[in-house]
Design goal:
There is one protein chain. It is built from no helices and 13 strands. It is globular and about 55 Å long. The chain starts with a strand and ends in a 6-residue tail after the last strand. The mean pLDDT is about 95. InterPro entries: Cupin_2, OryJ/VirC-like, RmlC-like_jellyroll, RmlC_Cupin_sf. This is Cupin domain-containing protein.
Length: about 160
């Protein structure tokens, strides 16, 4: 199963020319007893982002989300794994890069996703279930959002 990615970050030199600022491998961190590996590729502290900030966004302390900012994360789901049901205070763009898995919503629906599929997760309570015998790799971009309102009630985030 994948546990690393190559990350290339660009920037500018003193003459305002575009340069490759860094080119390195990032290792994943296993979560929930080894059901998935998370690689935090980059974060921003604000949105809109500040491209003048030279801080390595992968080193910023965050939870799943970054209040006021964004998070780019690669997740490798182990075969047979099932995440906890969770909701974040963010809008999440999930792109299946390799493999297949099922998105289950607390309302009871289950949607099968395969490589190339994109999910726009809008503050819904959901879980990920890899029912296959192969790993599934997804890229997630999480953008901080206002709490979602449903039925006149603000729905709180819930995740560990």
């Amino acid at each position: 199963m994948h546990t690393t990615i190559r990350r290339i970050v660009t920037g500018h030199d003193a003459a305002s020319n575009a340069i490759v600022h860094s080119d390195n491998e990032l290792a994943g961190q296993w979560v929930d007893g080894g059901i998935a590996s998370f690689i935090k590729v980059w974060t921003t502290a604000t949105s809109p982002a500040d491209n003048n900030d030279d801080f390595d966004g992968a080193l910023r302390a965050t939870g799943l989300t970054c209040p006021g900012g964004t998070v780019l994360r690669i997740v490798d789901f182990a075969p047979g794994c099932k995440s906890p049901m969770h909701r974040t205070r963010s809008i999440d763009y999930g792109i299946v890069l390799e493999g297949e898995l099922t998105m289950e919503l607390d309302g009871g629906s289950a949607t099968r996703l395969k490589a190339g599929d994109v999910v726009v997760q809008r503050g819904t309570n959901h879980l990920w279930h890899n029912t296959s015998d192969r790993p599934c790799r997804m890229a997630f971009v999480l953008v901080d959002a206002k709490p979602v309102q449903a039925g006149g009630v603000a729905l709180e985030q819930n995740y560990d």
